[in-house]
Automatic annotation (TrEMBL):
Protein name listed in UniProt: GNAT superfamily N-acetyltransferase
Keyword GTP-binding: no
Molecular function GO terms recorded: acyltransferase activity, transferring groups other than amino-acyl groups
SUPFAM superfamilies named in the record: Acyl-CoA N-acyltransferases (Nat)
Record carries keyword Transcription regulation: no
Pfam families: Acetyltransf_1 (PF00583)
Cross-referenced CDD domains: NAT_SF
Length: 333
């Protein structure tokens, strides 16, 4: 069985904890060898030799996300170990689709990423890839397919409305729009005010200590993840564990808030403050410290993904609502 590229440059095995859940090889039912007459589009599983080509393909196709596209491919290839997932490519490596099954609802399947090289568009490759992904999902027991993010390891909440051809393809294939999500963008220019010294001093006077997960000991990191699971969910805990950076606040012996970035490449989130500590200004400080790290890492802006409180991010970091995503689904019959 071949397997897609992992986040460290190695190759992760699609499936569930070592049990094979790979898609059908070209020529098997649901993965047609010539994808219903599309020249060069015989669909197969991604293999080890496809790694570099998939990154280049994603960068060429995903024009709104070109800089981070190779990292997105690597990230989707290194999900939580229990996830059932696959990556299918056209024979000429001009198209790729990632698909996975929801860990929370095994009847829900996800189209995680679809990319077709600009020079190969208009010949039916996108439709053929989606059809092959749907057939794989049926084989996994999914009753519904969604163009929607599958937390905690996802590329986008849904289809960015500016990727209009993708939205049009989904609608032609019978998908119905069922929800909308949006991101905010925080500017990270050198003159953007991300200072935290005054707020940190004020919090220290009230007994709140600010810490970084990367310098914490194993017991403290375990306590942080337990805090996130207790107040939110396992998905957020996975993101905090796999983040590029994570800051948290402690009062006495209790963790009261956290913020993370980079689990989804280049994006900020998740973050949260315990109910008893809200109103202290902990979230503002943790947010700004993460954004400052993203700026130091060379980012000119940061996407705040799947936003809820618009007002908070606008006040705390001058963020503006920008990217809008449509979420689609259809029944698999």
């Amino acid at each position: 069985m071949v397997s897609p590229v992992g986040g460290d440059g190695t190759f992760a095995v699609p499936g569930t904890s070592g049990a094979s859940a790979a898609g059908n090889p070209a020529g098997a039912p649901g993965v047609p060898g010539e994808a219903r007459g599309v020249p060069g589009a015989g669909i197969r599983e991604a293999g080890p030799d496809d790694a570099a080509a998939l990154g280049e393909l994603a960068a060429a196709a995903l024009t709104l996300d070109a800089a981070e596209a190779p990292d997105l491919v690597a990230s989707l290839s290194a999900p939580p170990p229990e996830r059932r997932w696959t990556a299918l490519v056209t024979g000429d490596l001009t198209g790729v689709v990632f698909a996975s099954v929801s860990g929370r609802d095994p009847s829900a399947g996800h189209i995680d990423l679809l990319a077709v090289h600009p020079r190969a568009r208009g010949a039916g490759r996108g439709r053929a890839l989606v059809a092959a992904a749907e057939e794989w999902l049926r084989g996994q027991g999914a009753a519904e397919a969604r163009f929607a993010g599958n937390p905690p390891c996802y590329a986008w909440p849904g289809i960015d409305v500016r990727y209009t051809p993708a939205a049009a393809l989904a609608e032609r294939m019978g998908y119905e729009r069922y929800d909308v999500a949006w991101n905010m963008t925080a500017g990270l220019a050198a003159d953007a005010d991300l200072s935290t010294d005054a707020d940190a001093a004020r919090l220290a006077e009230s007994g709140v200590e600010l810490r970084e997960a990367r310098t914490a000991g194993p017991d403290d990191r375990d306590a942080l993840l337990a805090f996130v699971r207790e107040h939110w969910n396992d998905n957020w805990a996975w993101e905090a564990e796999h983040a590029g950076g994570c800051h948290y606040a402690v009062r006495g012996s209790e963790i009261i808030g956290f913020a993370a970035w980079g689990a989804r490449p280049a994006w900020f989130g998740p973050m949260g403050t315990a109910p008893a500590a809200r109103g202290l200004g902990v979230g503002r400080v943790l947010l700004r410290r993460c954004l400052a790290e993203q700026r130091a890492a060379g980012q000119e802006s940061a996407q705040i993904g799947w936003v809820g409180p618009l007002g908070f991010y606008s006040r705390a970091a001058g963020a503006r609502a920008e990217r809008v995503f449509w979420l689609y689904r259809r029944t698999l019959r």
